[in-house]
Amino acid sequence: MILLFAWLGIQTLLYIHYGVQPILESLKYINAGKYLLTNGHLPELRYYFYLTTTLLITFCLKTGLGFTGVVLFQLGINAWAAFRFYQALSVIQTKSYSALLTTLFLICCIPYQTWNFYLYTESLFYSFTLLFFAQCIQTKQLSFTTVILQTLFLLLVILSRPLGILFLPCWIVYLIAKSGKQMQLLLIVASVVSVLAFFFISNLILGNISDWGILTSAENNEIICDVPVGSKLNLETLKSKPPLAQLYLYITTHPLHFFQLAFKRLYYFFVLARPYYTAFHNLFLYLIDLALYVPVLLSLPFAWKRHTNTTALFSVSIIAIFCTAICLQCDDYHNRFHHAIIPVFLYCGLYGLFEKITSQKITIK
Questions:
Q1: Where are the domains of the chain?
Q2: How confident is the model at residue 192 (pLDDT cuts 50, 70, 90)?
Q3: Inter-residue contact 174 to 146 (CB < 8 Å)
Q4: Per-position b or e across 133-169, b if 16+ CB within 10 A of its CB
């Protein structure tokens, strides 16, 4: 009931402030939905990797539910995901308020929840990511059912945003670490196939975005995506190759340029403040930084030693691959890439810290 009332309160306040926002980037998915209704197919291949939001908008336009219907559906999935996250944390540790307090923080994290009222892909992407992560961390022993559920949620994540493909190699690592010795060899073979699939899908996605190229951020010295800095770097000679090959050639031929940008991008990824935000806004973001990262430093060694070592490895791999992706491309104007893995930071940090405190109290008693 505490979580329910907190969720209702936060969403009500956000609705009063934002209302329904079918603007800016939302127009891409709205127009794609209208195109689908008129022509019977999507306008570009890229929209298959934004399929969940595009189909939701199409359905609401077709049925007359409109943009309000889209937001209501997004809110419903968001509430379900938050509840499943709470359930998953409760399965791991049932003798404390760790699950309650961690989920309460996520519900009250305004930058994370705000996207429910935009017709962007973020709301569904965050919710499906949370459902996938919750399903993984609550699984004590792999079974056919648990693997199928994880697969379905991961598929929804990938079909919500191309960024979702980053979870695939992390999941393979998780499966190998979680499985018995008899299954590990089979999974290692499967992982090789998955890596090949990862590169194929990545090239497919990156090669079918008409208004963006994989070298765009490097050419324009972008730390924040679509915000060029300084003079342009000429990389035209590399663009005849497949997207991932272009990226590899850029790094090997301009290593100093790459590492300078990578360091700055990582800084902005972890430090959420932006020079174009107000001082009060940035102060609020600094507080979120402290709440996310300080507990991670205090609790991660403890979590690794306990029964959660597999999920700790899974969580660290997710953070590591997101950091790598940011280094290779750029960070988002409004920290959208970072917010996708806020639940991972909370699991490694606040939840782990609460668990540590609880176990110490039990030991004392």
A1: 2-364
A2: confident
A3: no
A4: bbbbbbbeebeeebbebbeebbebbbbbbbbbbbbbb
